[in-house]
Amino acid sequence: MDEALKENIYGALEQVIDPELGIDIVNLGLVYGVELDENGTAKVTMTLTSMGCPLAPVIVDQVTAALADIPEVKQTEVDIVWSPPWTKDKMSRYAKIALGVT
């Protein structure tokens, strides 16, 4: 996947807002990686802020919808992982400032 396409995908994922925290999943550090295979299937490896997150299906649907506008992406698979566990250290400087985390 070329750099421009990767930027497009991450830009689209920045439109997915974590409903609990009000910050996008990229700046929260929830997206661990994105791969695009030769068939146009985007595999998004990500985590959530908590294991029992009741909004997981909503976030997965939003990720799928966000990538649907990218022509190269024909299908999206979201792989929710718990290792490595998410910590506040994974957040961008922007997210830490917005949430008042030091």
From TrEMBL:
Domain named MIP18 family-like: residues: 6-79
Pfam families in the record: FeS_assembly_P
InterPro entries linked: Fe-S_Maturation_MIP18 (IPR052339), FSCA_dom_sf (IPR034904), MIP18-like (IPR002744)
Xref: PANTHER family: FE-S PROTEIN MATURATION AUXILIARY FACTOR YITW
Protein name as it appears in the record: MIP18 family protein YitW
Annotated organism of origin: Siminovitchia terrae (Bacillus terrae)
Name of encoding gene: yitW
